[in-house]
Amino acid sequence: MSTLVIVESHFSNTWSIGEAIAGALPDATLLRVDNAPKRIDPSVELLILGAPTHAFTLSSSASRTSALERKTAGAQAARRGGFHASSIGLREWIAEASIPATTKVLAFDTCVAGAGTLFGQAAKKAVARLVANGVNAQYGSTFWVTGADQLRAEETERAAAWARGLTAEE
Ligand SMILES: Cc1cc2nc3c(=O)[nH]c(=O)nc-3n(C[C@H](O)[C@H](O)[C@H](O)COP(=O)(O)O)c2cc1C
């Protein structure tokens, strides 16, 4: 199954999950959202979209500016490590994307564990936008970070297991 994984990330957490997912699938390509094509080729059978939750939804220009100014341990570590934050968000990519009806789309996000997802989360907002655009999209999964914006240790293995489960479903 040909898979494309497209990820928005500012402190590397969602990117690390995308790497784990793409690494667990036999024929997967991982792209940053700001380098991803807007027109998805019909050969892509599974499209997996990942984004961090910002203010209970997908990032906006304002929240991405807040991310650049964030002083948490995770944000500072990503900057020290030279991680290059996404210059656009998944919201903007979706607005311009052309996705074949034959491509199955799953969205995942990262959220702060314990803050809960009661008020909203990026993946579900992404799915709502995609479905409104006529895309065959479903919520995939959520992966947890700490309140200091650091990916929880077990989450990359959980992401890989989730991805392996997707191929088992086929
Ligand atoms: C501006 C801003 C707003 C955020 N709002 C939320 C939120 O509403 N809920 C939540 O669970 N996490 C929130 N977070 C935390 C991020 O979702 C979390 O750090 C995420 O893992 C970042 O992923 P990234 O490293 O791929 O950018 C917010 C982070 C930023 C910078």
Automatic annotation (TrEMBL):
Gene3D superfamilies: 3.40.50.360. This is Flavodoxin. It comes from Bifidobacterium tibiigranuli. InterPro entries: Flavoprotein-like_sf. It comes from the Bacteria.
